[in-house]
Write a structure and sequence with these properties.
The strands form six sheets. This protein has a seven-stranded mixed β-sheet. The chain has a six-stranded parallel β-sheet with strand order 3-4-5-8-9-10. It is α/β, with parallel strands linked by helices and 582 residues long. It starts with 6 loop residues before the first helix and ends in a 7-residue tail after the last strand. The protein is 22% helix and 16% strand. The radius of gyration is 30 Å and the shape is elongated. The chain crosses the membrane at residues 560-581. One of its GO terms (biological process) is lipid metabolic process.
Length: 582
Amino acid sequence: MQNCTDITEIYPEGMKAYLINGAQKTGWLPVDYNMASLRNVTLTQSIYSRTPRFDSNFDILSVTGFISLIKPSSTWLNVEHDIFYREHGLNMTNYILSIQKLGSVKYISSPELGFLQSLSGGINREVNLVFCFLDKALSDPSTNKTYNYMLSNLTFIKTIASGIMVPKNYIWPVTSDNYIQLHTQIVQEAHNAGLEIYASDFSNDGIFPYNYSYDPLGEYLSFVSDGGFSVDGVLTDFPLTASEAIGNPLIISHNGGSGDYPGCTDLAYENAVRDGADVIDCSIQMTKDGIPICMSSIDLLATTDVQQSKFCSLLSVIPEIQSKKGIFTFNLTWDDINILRPKISSPLSDYNAAFMAASLGFDVVDLVTTALSHAGYNNPTTTNKEVMIQSRHSAVLVKLKHQKTQYKLVYTLPLNIEDASDSSVAEMNKFAEAVMKSVFVESSGFIVRKTNLVKELQSAGRLAVYAQMKQRWKSITTFFSVNSCTGLGDGKPRSMKAVEIGGLVQTLQDKARRPARAPALVLKPSDVVEPPLPAAAAAAAAVPKTTGYSSPRSDAPPPAAAVTAISSTGILLGMVWVSLLI
């Protein structure tokens, strides 16, 4: 119990050693305590990568106490060590038979086939008995047969149980370098023997085979009608993800499939298209010879092996861009960059249109629109390829608007904004057709509340886009929205109700909560309106050490005085293969 409670603090001298299934185990085991002695023991998180803020919030519940409190329509009970309990005078068979009268117990599972056999004569017929397979090399202590051997005796298992549960790697084996292999035939074999089959060991924060691109939903779907088979259920730490039905949102890639491959490479873009992205993006940077290229960062140190190349002597600090040394895209020609090798990089990027115009002589907006024109995207006949240009500063979009561009202009709202005044919305209406902003406010890994922006912007006829969702980031709490399965009537599948926005953090005890967040910022017209981009100066022989612009901290909203210093060329978004245009 030391793995999931604070019992070591309540009974520090309680550690004992026992022989369990032939192996020596040391710890605090429940056979040494009755329920009265456990009243002061509370539950803790047993997986340390998950939040500890619910530790010591909840007491240990008995089975009958759980059923009385929760009143579930269906309960699954798992008995892990029947033989061990029998050795210590505890009869699990009699206990399970005594509580079946509570009515909600629908499933009984155990890795000991002998225990399930002891129930089969007295258990209600509507209760399903499920035999759990463990590691193939281990043995069932009730039969002294390995679980690998038991796999070849499914017809015998059927005489005792109605189903089996197997670790998910029994179905989709995983190689030592974390890629899935061809699926086994165990699902078909179980169904042929008349057994239901359930897969276990699912969690959203576990180690995913690379084939799933860090997408927990993709993993679940591979066990349902993928390869011509479907399991009958899954055992998961995150039932909401497994139970939800997915709608049809617009999916925009971020530097292509940059979670799997180096961003803005052909492999990343091909992967994004293959995975079903609706829109392919291109973060535009400029080369020394004035060519706009797709690169997730202006600093080549973050995205390539330039530090190991002949260009390593070009390291310099440019305060207008970043405080640390870098080798920047405008230091090298396109031919130079083309010989570098890409690498996986941070997903965070900054854009510097004003700096490029004032210091390097590049009018990035004109160069981008020219590249789009040369690629044929201003051709009215190209109706199946929509282009969107995104910027976090209005000066870029205003200039594009004045050029009467036919591309959709997307404005990224400043950081920490949760509300927008009517006058600021009116200003955005002058130059943008859509906005990008997170829908939820987060604190310490919990969703605290939903902003008012979606309602306000949609009422003004705008499209709200949820920005940059990354499954690998622990800060992203929820990935998918729920489809109500309307139209299925009484045939819709059983599902789990989503936690209400801000509901989870309310269950924390006061001592576990972080200090309250600062008041939400309301977007004002002064936050939106910016001076025009500076005219492109003659290209300098060398980048000046200072240009009169200053960059704010990346984690703070840009001050008004520094707006033009970090104006963005935007992210170029185009349907399907627009990434190939540059």
